[in-house]
Amino acid sequence: MSNVNGHHSLLEELEKAESVLEGLLRKISNVNEYLNPLEHMLRAEDFSSTGSYIAGVSNGIVCVLSAMIKGDPLATSIELIKGKGRIIPAIIKGSDRSETKSTCDSILKIVEGKPGGIPITYVINLRWANLQSVIDGENVLVVGKRFSYGEKVSLNKLYNRFKEIGITILEDQGEFGGGPLTFRLTQLARKLQNMTILEVTLSRHFAEDYERVAEILESFTIL
Predict the structure, then answer these.
(1) Any residues with CB less than 8 A from the CB of 130 and at least 6 apart, and which?
(2) Same-domain status, 45 and 56
(3) How many CB atoms lie within 10 A of CB 155?
(4) For residue 27, what are the CA distances in angstroms to 18, 41, 148?
(5) pTM to 2 decimals?
(6) Does 64 score more than 60 pLDDT?
């Protein structure tokens, strides 16, 4: 009989321990729900404090990972645009054209964290390149389609806006639009839904014209 009572007592203790453990796990889960948005917000503030996160229209982000490289044409153009009263998306600047994993991880956490307080509906990876001389004009941009995500109606709206301001649009499924950041962003978009992801490459001449770059940034806000 004493053995039976001992087993019964042990089961009661195990059930109590299980109940306590479940309670602790619930508390940890609640703490994580609070801390995760806080972490995302602080990460965005950290980008801001280093000068690499520029607040803008809160539902969209443009990543320019060459914009902190000295002498880069997009870096110069973005500096000239700041403070001009333009309505443009938030901008994440960087000096990592190779798009390393740590940079991609930080950007994805910012996107997930809704730094403006509302869900992000579009993220553009904005780059520049020395295009072939026959197309390296001031009004040419390339939309990379190797990795992209979004509804066709949204893309058509953006294309129509580009055409209205005299921009020639080329699409490419090979060299352009295939980097690690764009790939990771498309994966995130498939999970979250209702998000447009594009990689847009400007000609060097275009990237050097800050007025045209400003028009491009303003055009993105249509998404």
Answers:
(1) 136, 203, 204
(2) no
(3) 16
(4) 14, 22, 39
(5) 0.77
(6) yes
CA nearest 89: which of 206, 7, 205, 200?
Answer: 200
Question: Could you identify the residue written with the tokens 């190797």?
Answer: 146
The answer on pLDDT for 33 being more than 60 is: no
Cα-to-chain-centroid distance, residue 97: 15
> What angle (nearest 5°) sits at the alpha carbon of residue 49, between those of residues 43 and 77?
105
Residues 35 and 135 in one domain: no
Q: Are residues 87 and 157 in the same domain?
A: yes
Residue 2: which domain range? 1-49
183: left (phi over 0), alpha (psi -120 to 50) or beta: alpha
Q: Give pLDDT tens digits for 95-113.
A: 998 899 989 998 998 898 8
Q: Please state the rounded mean pLDDT for residues 120-136.
A: 86
Report the CATH number at residue 210.
3.40.630.10
pLDDT, tens digit, 9 for 90 and up, residues 160-184: 999 999 998 999 877 777 789 999 9
Length of the chain counted residue by residue: 223
